[in-house]
Amino acid sequence: MKLISAVLANPHCKVEKLWLVECCITDEGCAALASALRSNPEHLRQLDLSGNKLRDSSLKCLSTVLVNYCCKLEKLWLGYCGFTDEGCAALISALRSNPEHLRELDLSGNKLGKFDLRLLAALLANPQCKIEILWLRDCDLTGEGCPALTSAVRSNPSHLRELNLSWNILSKSDVKSLLDLKDDPHCKLERLKYESTTSS
Domain map of the chain by residue range? Predict the structure, then answer.
């Protein structure tokens, strides 16, 4: 990771897509990557770190990149990385500071059960937020935050097209208000996945 990071930090490097899926990246490697991207944040458009065991401290390092107004990342995949609600809160806080570029966000498979979905809802409600695809599959989420998500999408309905809430602790009644958005002519939501771990 240090060798790769040295390349990415070079101001002449214009890598736009970086996929490092299941590469056993450690916190130390993620810190080196974040440092490189802080030095040269303008070109990267896609970053996939799925399947690496990144703790909350790694998410906080990455957040220092995302908060930079020169960062124009459009797709960020962090599925099954092992971080918790604390790391997610730092990530969403960074995106709220620089919300204009991201189009896809995958946080699936991380233990976010204690994460306050109202923080994510505040990001989605921002008219500058242009996220089109959001995956929160298998995150131990409950229906408590669904009303906040619904309100956010209603207030900023022009962008979100796909929302995946599958394999969380949700009932159909929890997501009913989100399902209703698909019939709203002002809302762009086309696909809502919510297969639940519960039987209700």
Answer: 2-193
* DSSP helix/strand/coil, 165: coil
To the question of domain 2-193 being in CATH 3.80.10.10, the answer is yes
Question: Which contiguous run of DSSP H or E holds residue 164?
Answer: strand 162-164
- Residue for token pair 């996939």: 48
Q: Please state the length of the chain.
A: 200
Cα atoms in the 13 Å half-sphere on the side-chain side of 4: 14
CA distance 50 to 52: 6
pTM for the full predicted model: 0.94
Model pLDDT for residues 17-69, shown as the tens digit of each residue: 999 999 999 899 999 999 999 999 999 999 999 999 999 999 999 999 999 99
